[in-house]
Design brief:
The structure holds two protein chains of two kinds. By secondary structure, chain A is an alpha/beta fold. Chain A contains ten helices and 15 strands. Chain A has helices at 18-27, 52-64, 83-94, 105-114, 131-141, 154-163, 186-191, 269-274, 289-307, 329-332, and strands at residues 10-14, 31-34, 68-73, 99-102, 120-122, 143-147, 167-175, 207-211, 217-221, 224-229, 244-245, 254-255, 262-264, 279-282, 326-327. The radius of gyration of chain A is 20 Å and the shape is globular. The model of chain A has no long low-confidence stretch (mean pLDDT 94). Chain B is α+β, with helices and mostly antiparallel strands. Chain B has a five-stranded mixed sheet with strand order 3-2-1-4-5. In chain B, a hairpin with a 4-residue loop joins strand 1 (36-40) and strand 2 (45-50). Classes of the chains: A alpha/beta, B alpha+beta.
């Protein structure tokens, strides 16, 4: 019996700025994903992302180092406002992007019809967790890779992998958001701006931090108080899904959806590679060069260890996690909450 | 009282950065008219940054002086220095309460992202501007553990 051949997974890393992209490339990323400076991507934050010229130079830098560049065009155009998304696709193709990550079927069909040879990936924002849904996207839009929602166990991922006609990409580190990817309207309800259409989850323009004389920190989004932290507690991002709330069946405020915590699949890395996952994704386009350098180099080294048959040595990344807490989420068990 | 020499020194730094790293100011978008109070909590002074593209300014003020600002960024001197130097992640510092922000969050996020989009380090640029004192001082500060 032949030993099972291991597919070397691609390490897919975030970049919010050209300097971050170069940091990711230098730290050993196989591919880097980024977005334009507008609502076409789900990290449309102030001072972040790429102009046309910046992406052009960044692609040249990455390609010179053998690294791919992927464009996140993974938001949903509002009715009658598709031009911005079409322009993003046109520009990315013109610049020689390696793949475009899409979520909206209108954006996908535009890219597929106009650029049939352009490689398309299905964003986690599309929220396609089943064999049937993924097959549909592959058949209708010629999707080459699906980024799976963070709601599946590794055995489930393995089963999906065996039955779909495209590659699989899984998140391994970073933000652990609410498990309704591409469908969350909490920010929209609170601020009037949409995560899915404007690309802003908890827009900074609506976030307020208030610290009292005892160093207790209150975080607010719009008119809503999300959480309060004593001086000894570690806060997380000011997102509604990570807030602490008073509910009728509980005496104290508690994390009704998810607590401030990051995904870290360090201990599950050999299992993910064994399951045949084609690409391992790090979240964090909004994070700094320091984060990119530390996280990417750590995972590069760990993946190389596994491929060489050694136990993976993974640096302690706890200091970079949200709230200084980490979880394996649904990958380890459906009962993570 | 903050000396005239200190203010000259700070003015030279910010003008040098604006000349050598214009992209930082391009990334500031709608926030170049904002006033940032940079508060190194273990020093007796605070810094006022006005990142206007054509005429940026950085001045020092006594801590007790009442100042108007749009956003305040607080942390120890070493924390702030290492963040700008690209050694520490701003979000991680916020998660551990080593970095505090107040006021216009969007302006702070924009400034943080703009300062991070550099190859090398703005701090290193400034150190080489004053080679006799700056370079050895930076080397010393980089080796101090937070």
């Amino acid at each position: 019996m032949h030993p099972k051949k291991i597919i070397p997974p691609e390490l897919v890393c975030p970049a919010g700025t050209p300097a971050s992209l170069r940091a990711a490339v230098d730290a050993g990323a196989d591919a880097v994903y980024c977005g334009f400076q507008n609502a076409t991507n789900a990290r449309n934050f102030p001072g972040l992302n790429f102009t046309f010229e910046e992406l052009q130079n960044s692609i040249a830098y990455a390609h010179n180092h053998g690294t791919k560049v992927l464009l996140a065009a993974n938001t949903f155009p509002p009715a009658g406002k598709t031009d911005l998304w079409k322009q993003a696709i046109d520009n990315a193709v013109c610049l020689g992007i390696d793949a475009i990550i899409v979520a909206d079927i209108g954006v996908a069909v535009y890219a597929q019809n106009k650029y049939p040879d352009q490689r398309l990936h299905l964003s986690v924002q599309a929220g396609a967790p089943s064999i049937e849904a993924i097959k549909y996207y592959c058949e209708e839009f010629n999707i080459k890779r699906v980024v799976l929602p963070r709601i599946l166990t590794i055995p489930e991922i393995k089963q999906i992998k065996e039955e779909i006609p495209c590659e699989i990409e899984c998140f391994i580190f970073g933000n652990h958001g609410l498990m309704a990817e591409g469908r969350c309207s909490l920010t929209n309800y609170t601020t009037g701006l949409s995560t899915n259409m404007d690309g802003v989850c908890s827009p900074a323009s609506h976030v307020k931090y208030e610290e009292d004389e005892n160093k207790n920190l209150t975080t607010k989004l719009g008119e809503f108080t999300i959480d309060q932290f004593s001086c000894s507690q570690n806060p997380g991002y000011p997102t509604i899904c990570k807030g602490r709330y008073l509910v009728p069946h509980r005496q104290d405020a508690y994390y009704a959806f998810e607590e401030p915590i990051s995904l870290n699949l360090a201990n599950l890395l050999p299992d993910l590679i064994e399951a045949g996952v084609h690409a391992l994704k790090i979240e964090g386009r909004q994070r700094s060069r320091a984060y990119i350098k530390a996280v990417v180099s750590s995972w590069r080294s760990a993946i190389d260890d596994v491929l060489e048959g050694k136990p993976p040595h993974i640096s302690d990344l706890l200091a970079l996690t949200e709230g200084n807490k980490q979880t394996e989420g649904a990958y380890a068990s459906k009962r993570w909450r | 009282m903050i000396s005239f020499i200190t203010q000259l020194f700070l003015g030279k730094i910010v003008r040098y950065i604006s000349q050598t790293r214009p992209d930082i100011f391009n990334r500031m978008e709608a926030h170049t008219d904002k006033v940032f109070l940079i508060d190194p909590v273990n020093l007796p002074l605070v810094l006022i940054l006005k990142p206007q593209k054509e005429n940026p300014s950085l001045t020092a003020c006594p801590r007790h002086k009442i100042l108007k600002y749009d956003a305040r960024i607080s942390g120890t001197f070493l924390t702030l220095l290492k963040m700008i130097d690209g050694q520490l992640d701003g979000d991680a510092l916020f998660f551990t309460r080593d970095l505090t922000i107040e006021g216009d969050t969007e302006a702070v996020v924009c400034l943080r992202n703009a300062l991070d989009d550099v190859d090398g380090s703005v701090v290193e640029d400034v150190a080489t501007l004053f080679p006799l004192l700056g370079t050895p001082t930076l080397s010393f500060l980089r080796n101090i553990k937070n």
